[in-house]
Design goal:
mainly alpha; about 75% helix; about 0% strand; elongated
Length: about 80
C-alpha cells in the first residue's frame, strides 16, 4: 500500500535539514521515523485483533462476564 502525505512546511524543512546532515534522502528519513514509531504488529497480536473484530456482541458480553467472575474470585 502506498500513501501520500502532505506535511506542514516546518516539518518538511526540518526533515530535509536532518536528512541532508545524515546523508540520506528525506523520504528515507521520514520512513525510518515512521517505522520507529509504528513498528509492525506481531502476527499473534494481529490474530487477536482479527478475532475481536469478528466477535459478536454476545461474544463480548460473555467475555465481560468471564472477566467479572475472575475479578470477583480473586478478591
Amino acid at each position: 500500500m502506498a500513501l501520500n502525505v502532505t506535511v506542514p512546511d516546518r516539518i518538511a524543512k526540518s526533515a530535509a535539514r536532518v536528512a541532508r546532515a545524515a546523508g540520506v534522502p528525506t523520504e528515507t528519513l521520514l520512513i525510518r521515523a515512521l517505522e520507529a514509531h509504528f513498528p509492525p504488529v506481531p502476527a499473534s497480536l494481529q490474530n487477536e485483533f482479527d478475532l475481536l473484530e469478528r466477535a459478536s456482541d454476545e461474544d463480548m458480553i460473555l467475555v465481560d462476564r468471564l472477566i467479572d467472575n475472575c475479578s470477583n474470585e480473586a478478591r
